[in-house]
Amino acid sequence: MTAPKSVLFVCLGNICRSPTGEGVLQNLVEQRGLEDQIQIDSAGTIGYHEGNPADRRMRNHASQRGYDLLSRSRKITADDLERFDLVIAMDRQNLADIMSIDSSAENVRLLSHFLDDNWPEDVPDPYYGGADGFETVLDMIEAACPAILDRLLGREFESPAETNQ
Ligand code: 4NP
Fold first, then answer.
1. Residue minimizing CA distance to atom 7 of ligand 1
2. Mean pLDDT of residues grouped by 10 in the chain (165 residues)?
3. What distance in angstroms lies between residue 14's CA and the mean position of ligand 1's atoms?
């Protein structure tokens, strides 16, 4: 058996978008019986919500689609960029903030890297908005997770957005 592959989802607060990335991909990994091969975590670029569970609104929307969001918020560290095989930023500001930790990191991608051009480039921040925002977060993450899993498993995956980054 090859060594497990690891992925870290990153957003601003680590209470809405990145916990959803973690929960949705974990669900897919369990459906496919790949728990021994894939390790998943999430973090935020700010530590403001450190130790908090995912936002109740996000948990409720996720739970309606069958996902349990179990993460506790933590701030990303420089060590994360070394430790994780793949780091996925939810929006371009998150990407810039991650790259400001280590501008030479080569394992950081936008979530939309794993989506075709019909999707927006950023996963919109749902925190100050209404119910639609939380549904959009789930729609984008559900659409991207199969390609993210393929990438982690080393299967050939040509990003439709490769030329945009
Ligand atoms: P997230 O959402 O980055 O998807 O976890 C947010 C959570 C908290 C805040 C902003 C966005 N905040 O300003 O506290």
1. 13
2. 92 98 98 98 98 98 98 98 98 98 97 98 98 98 98 74 46
3. 7
